[in-house]
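Sequence design from tokenized structure. All designs in this work follow the same two-part layout: the structure record, then the generated sequence. An example of the structure record is given first.
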């Protein structure tokens, strides 16, 4: 069938495939535990404030670390930073296994370590993505990236929920975190199969950012777009899992429901990988903004089983569309800003820093207006932050060179 045929320019390289497989292993380790870290803290404290502070500290430390280690990534290589990220993530879970329930006394230190680990991993991974793809196959890679991530996320929470449900108290959590630790060791071994990149430009060009923004002012709008995308993401990292747990009071149910939600994301990502094109970026961004805002409106009725499930289902359908469309659009900038590929590390540093600042801002807004499970304020906060996603397609302006090219063709 024509739908399943792949054109030659969209075929992924061997290194691209290796990076996807290793990312899937890493993500599976994360998926085993990431939802349940927040539930673990909730079970120990029953405090949205502590959960919010944990995620806020992690996100802000991730933003700061990304900005600080950008120069190191340029000089030591992206693959080295990528491996540091996997190692620090393994260390994070090892520390949880050792401290167990005492973790809550040092939650701020754990949050700092998690932020540093995530910073190193994602900075390394996203710069590697640019190197193993091109404009012709990047949408396909990003689509498969979503599929591998969501497939790992689909299996992990269900398995973790089942394991936790088999044990009384909190011992099931420790077993799950131990499995996650093993997966990160496997990911470390897998990273050794990735070829070290050849790089000749070790100079860190962040000091030229003001000049770049002067020459390409729309690049600033692209960065503001990442800030806005981060608003709901910070809240979605921990609030939905807690909402589901307060309704069902079973970790296994939370895990199984995530299988359904992530199945929708996988289907959405697969369709995107097959049919998406860079020319329709704005259309995808408007469509995703409509879907994300619509998902939050169901919570206005009340916070119940059917409203939370509808909210999660619809948001999981449209989240990959927004993520892929804006990531592919942003990668266009790397080939068009004055320093081009020599600024790709700096571009990823800016993306990750700005996005995490947006996530932190979203959590702060949530913590100001809702320090407990409040059925009145939670829906309105989510609608506000989801509704702001309509600003993103307005900010998505093509680089000047692209505009000139379009005028010539037109």
């Amino acid at each position: 069938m024509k739908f399943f045929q792949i054109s030659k320019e969209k075929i992924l390289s061997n290194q691209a495939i290796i990076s996807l497989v290793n990312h899937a292993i890493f993500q599976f380790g994360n998926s085993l535990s990431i939802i349940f870290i927040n539930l673990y803290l909730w079970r120990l404290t029953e405090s949205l404030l502590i959960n919010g502070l944990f995620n806020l500290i992690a996100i802000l430390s991730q933003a700061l670390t990304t900005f600080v280690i950008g120069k190191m990534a340029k000089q030591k290589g992206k693959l080295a930073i990528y491996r540091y990220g996997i190692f620090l993530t393994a260390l994070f879970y090892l520390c949880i296994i050792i401290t167990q329930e005492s973790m809550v006394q040092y939650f701020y230190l754990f949050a700092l370590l998690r932020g540093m680990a995530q910073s190193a991993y994602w900075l390394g991974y996203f710069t590697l993505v640019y190197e193993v793809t091109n404009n012709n196959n990047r949408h396909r890679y990003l689509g498969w990236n979503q599929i591998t991530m969501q497939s790992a996320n689909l299996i992990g929470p269900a398995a973790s929920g089942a394991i936790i449900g088999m044990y009384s108290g909190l011992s099931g959590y420790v077993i799950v975190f131990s499995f996650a630790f093993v997966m990160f060791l496997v990911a470390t071994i897998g990273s050794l199969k990735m070829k070290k990149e050849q790089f000749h430009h070790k100079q860190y060009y962040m000091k030229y950012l003001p000049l770049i923004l002067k020459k390409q002012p729309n690049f600033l709008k692209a960065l503001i777009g990442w800030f806005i995308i981060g608003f709901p993401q910070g809240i979605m990292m921990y609030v939905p899992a807690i909402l589901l747990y307060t309704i069902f009071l079973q970790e296994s149910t939370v895990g199984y429901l995530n299988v359904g939600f992530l199945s929708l994301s996988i289907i959405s990502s697969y369709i995107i990988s097959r049919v998406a094109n860079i020319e329709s970026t704005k259309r995808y961004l408007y469509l995703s903004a409509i879907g994300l805002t619509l998902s939050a409106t169901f919570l206005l009725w009340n916070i119940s089983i059917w409203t939370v499930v509808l909210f999660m289902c619809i948001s999981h359908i449209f989240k990959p569309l927004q993520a892929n469309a804006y990531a592919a659009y942003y990668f266009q900038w790397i080939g068009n800003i004055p320093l081009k590929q020599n600024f790709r590390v700096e571009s990823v540093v800016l993306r990750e820093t700005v996005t995490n600042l947006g996530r932190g801002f979203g959590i702060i807004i949530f913590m100001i207006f809702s320090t407990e499970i409040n059925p009145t304020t939670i829906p309105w906060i989510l609608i506000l932050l989801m509704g702001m996603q309509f600003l993103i397609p307005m900010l998505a302006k093509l680089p000047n060179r692209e505009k000139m090219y379009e005028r010539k063709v037109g």
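The CA atoms of residues 227 and 354 lie 5 Å apart. We note this feature because it recurs in several other targets discussed in the main text.
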